[in-house]
Amino acid sequence: MILPIYLYGQPVLRKPTEEVTPESLDIKQFIADMQDTLTNAEGCGLAAPQVGKSLRLFIVDGSELGEDYPECVDFKQAFINPEIIEKSDETVTYSEGCLSLPGISENVVRPKTITICYQDADFKWHEDTYTDFKARIVQHEYDHLEAHVFTDRISPIRKTFVKSKLTNIAKGKTGARYKYKH
Questions:
Q1: How far apart are the first and last CA of the chain?
Q2: Catalytic: 106?
Q3: Which of 12, 86, 138, 142 has the most CB atoms lying inside 10 A of its own CB?
Q4: Could you tell me the CA-to-CA distances from 147 to 122, 131, 152 in Å, in that order?
Q5: Cα–Cα distance between 46 and 67 in angstroms, integer?
Q6: Which of 19, 23, 90, 141 is catalytic?
Q7: Which pLDDT tens digit goes with each residue over 30-65?
């Protein structure tokens, strides 16, 4: 089922997220619904707050990025109750966009490599290290669980330039090509 993506200005995007338990919801169905939503919106990652749930869960699907980022071809998984436990000092700058902030893209500086602990859909723990574009996707989605959006990480001067776009999204003056909620 395709869920509406909550756009900038929705309180759920700034609300602290709660740990996911097997009793929280039908986790496998919710992940399947998130995957349908992500595929429909043609994105590479989606966090639970972006579909209205304040839960520590996000999914990634880098399969469509394979031509530009071959390491992402088979990068499709769910991250439940994740915790980034290590970040490299080396950083990389890259232009990011977000399904919750349609029409906005800005350069964001992020660590090149991260290590993250998380549970899978069967609630088994994993610890993985990601670098380059995989690390960027994970960090971007992880930020949603920490009540951040990528524009929180841009320079003050760039924030000034995107302020009116953010205001228009929050006021419902900007829509998206996919199912969304203002």
A1: 19
A2: no
A3: 138
A4: 25, 23, 10
A5: 21
A6: 141
A7: 999 999 999 999 999 999 999 999 999 999 999 888
For the chain, state the CA radius of gyration.
16
SS (H, E, C) the chain: CCCCEECCCCHHHHCCCECCCCCCCCHHHHHHHHHHHHHHHCCCEEEHHHHCCCECEEEEECHHHCCCCHHHCCCEEEEEEEEEEEECCCEEEEEEECCCCCCCEEEEEEECEEEEEEECCCCCEEEEEEEHHHHHHHHHHHHHHCCCCHHHHCCHHHHHHHHHHHHHHHCCCCCCCCCEEC
Question: Residue range 103-116: average pLDDT?
Answer: 97
Give the mean pLDDT of 96-112.
97
